[in-house]
Amino acid sequence: MMNELTLLQAMRDKTPVATDAAVEDGRKTLLRRIDPSLPRARPTHRRRTAKRVGIISLATAAIVAALVAGDVLGPAGWRGAATAQAAKVLNDAAQTTIETADPVIKPGQYLKLQSSNVWGSYSTDESGKQFQWLDTEIMTMYIPADRTGEWVWERSGRIPTTFFDEASKEHAKSIQPDEPKAYVLRGANGGFYGSSPDQSGFPSTEYLASFPRDPHMLLNNIFKKTVGQGQSIDGEALVFIADLLRTGMVPADLRAALYKAAALIPGVTVTDGQATLGGRKGIAIGRVEEASHTRQDIIIDPKTGLLIGERQVLTQAQGPIPAGTATTLTTIETSVSDTVP
Questions:
Q1: Tens-digit pLDDT profile for residues 102-114
Q2: Whole-prediction pTM value?
Q3: Long-range contacts of 130-134 (CB under 8 A, 24+ apart)
C-alpha cells in the first residue's frame, strides 16, 4: 500500500490539470492505487449543502480521498485543524461529555427527544417567479428501552412561520391555505418509513457502534463516507457530524469522539461565544463555505457537553433572506418518559 509521504511527493511533482474530467480521473486513479476494491461512497444522512464544487475543492477531495481510503492519519495533520480556541471548546466539551452520564432508560421507559426544526422553503409560480420563506416543525420522539419495540413520533407538520417579503407570505398561504394537522407515527424498531431505523433516517445501535472512537480514525471514517459530496471535504465532514449529533441518539463516548474529530477539521472556528438557540445558551462552533455563502454551526452547552442544536446560517443575503439568517436549524433536548401518546 502507498504510504502518505510517497503519495504527497507524487502529488507535489505532478500538478493536477484544472479540468473537471482530469480531476475526476485523477481521483479514481488515486483511489485504485490505494485500495482497488474501495466501493463508491453512498449518501447516508441528510445532505443539505448545495452541490456546486469548484475545481480546487475537487483536487483537494482527490488527495483526501486517496489518503482516507487506506485509513492514513494524514488529512487532519498536514492540512491544518480547527483554531486553537475552537479546539479547546470542543476538547473541553468532549471531556465534560464523558463525565456527564447519559440518561438511564429502564424497562418500560422511553428516551424522549424533543426538537424544534426550521427549514427554508422555496417555490416558483406559473410565471417563474420565485418565493422563499422559513417553515417550522415541532417533533417529539419516544424510543423504548428495548429499541426493537414500538417507537412513537409526534409531528406538528411544517408550518410557514418566517417571511421576508409580502409576496412570499401570500404565496405560502395560497399553496397551504389550511393549518397543517399534527399527527403521530408508530413503528417497530424505528421503522416509520422502512424496515429499520437507518432506512427511516435514524441511526441504529449497530450503526452507531460501527464508528471508531479514536478521533483521527473517526474523522477518516467520515471522510470516506462523504467523499465526493457537498462543496468541500472538510465542510461536508462537519455537516455529517452535525447531522448525526442532532438525532439526539449518539452515546456519550461517540459524542465525545465526534467533538474531538471536529477539532481536527481545518477552518472550524468559534462563531459565537454566546449563542442562544431555543432559549438555551451555548458556544457555537462552525465553518464557512465560501461558494454558497453559508456557515454550518453546532451549538454546545459547555457546562454539560450536550448538544443544544445545529444550524446553517447565510453569510451573504440570498434573495429576500438577509445575511445572518439560519435557513436550517434544529434544537434538541433529551429526557426520560414513563408514558407515550
A1: 889 999 999 999 9
A2: 0.77
A3: 130/319, 131/167, 131/168, 131/171, 131/172, 132/164, 132/168, 132/318, 132/319, 132/320, 132/321, 133/160, 133/162, 133/163, 133/164, 133/168, 133/169, 133/172, 134/160, 134/161, 134/162, 134/163, 134/325, 134/327
